[in-house]
Amino acid sequence: MNRDTALKLVEEYTQNKNLIKHMLAVEAAMRAYARKFNEDEDLWGITGLVHDFDYEKMGTEHPSEWGYEILRKNGAGEEIIQAIKGHADRDNPASRPTLMDKTLFAVDELTGFIVACALPRPDQISGLQIKSIKKRLKDKSFARGVDREHVRMGCEELDIELDDHLTTILEAMQGIKDSLGLK
Q1: Which CATH topology does 3-174 take?
Q2: What is the pLDDT of residues 105-127, one digit of tens each?
Q3: For residues 65-104, b (16+ Cβ closer than 10 Å) or e, as one string?
Q4: CB 113 within 8 A of CB 133
Q5: Which InterPro entries does the protein's record reference (predicted)?
Q6: Using CA atoms, how far apart are residues 7 and 23, in angstroms rounded to an integer?
Q7: Which residue stretches of the chain have pLDDT < 70?
Q8: Hey, where are the domains in the chain?
């Protein structure tokens, strides 16, 4: 599967512009980690891009066999399917045997959290700092939908410090801020 095919699937099956932006943010974070870990940047990026493409259609059944079949028909390999399955099985680290699986899980929720941190700021994501994100992570009333335990698990599975993890994701998202509709 190439990026053009992946993006067409996202656009075909996703109407919500914020969900599309989320998938673009996860793609950017996955590409950043692929470079960091000397892995296949296109494979990792495409995995991030399509990881939620069936969410609107399947809702609580996401990710779904229906979605996996569409991905397979469009050239996605089993490593992409496995990573998508693993990111959804949040409380079971054994479902994420590969580094790509672990990374998708680790970046998924944090991209949305970083957007939530950026939106109220006048300079949005451009001037957002790690200390501000960490402060918001400690505030359980902020972005309640983000499970802080999953953030901790993601760092643990990648064997990376929270500051380094946040820096990698934030810089990746800052690099595509226009695509995310952010300043």
Answers
A1: Hypothetical protein af1432 (1.10.3210)
A2: 999 999 999 999 999 999 999 99
A3: eebbebbeeeebeeebbbbbbbbbebeebeebeebbbbbb
A4: yes
A5: HD_domain (IPR006674)
A6: 10
A7: none
A8: 3-174
